[in-house]
Amino acid sequence: MKVNPTVSIGMPVYNGEKYLRGALDSLLSQTFPDFELIISDNASTDSSESICREYAGKDDRIRYIRQPENIGAAANFKFVFDAAAGEYFMWAACDDVRSPDFIELNVEFLKHNADYVASTTPTGFEGLALDQQTLVDFRLDGDLFERFTGFFKYCWVSHGIFYCLARTSALRDCPVIGQSFFAADWAIILYLASKGKFNRTATGYTI
Fold first, then answer.
1. Which CA distances in Å does 1 have to 4, 81?
2. How far apart are CA 119 and CA 109, in angstroms?
3. Which of the chain's ends, N or C, has fewer CB atoms near its CB within 10 Å?
């Protein structure tokens, strides 16, 4: 019987050909190898399908699913989460690049800190080289009130918090996943923050 992976990565894709190879290469180069990568292609009209099939053919950790029609971004994010089998879960944007130690750093932290529900690295914004970035490194690790107020202090640069490594069990009952409205990602972050603290590692990066 196949043992479930430690980490599930969900990558929703729609017409991501420009950055997709870089994002996939950064995930498949992780120093922590025990993961599954679930790619849901939302009926892309560019070369995303052929790129994903190429990579899936070379690495059996990848599960590639092509939706027969576009189901919308929110439903696609829910699709990859619902398919996850790992103890830890993270969404991966098809235009993000992560340091090779991203998963290892965050799994190691969560294994030893039960009061944290999620962990991530310092984050920048795609389109700039790493040495041109001023990385965002706020964390949400106070009490509940401090976590909520801290989030709104930095909400406009919170994408790195959303693309964290989280305990899958902490996300399972989140009613917002799959809903489409302005700042739905903020609502998911706040739901997680109500369950526990967010760590930000001292090293590693996502851009």
1. 9, 22
2. 7
3. N
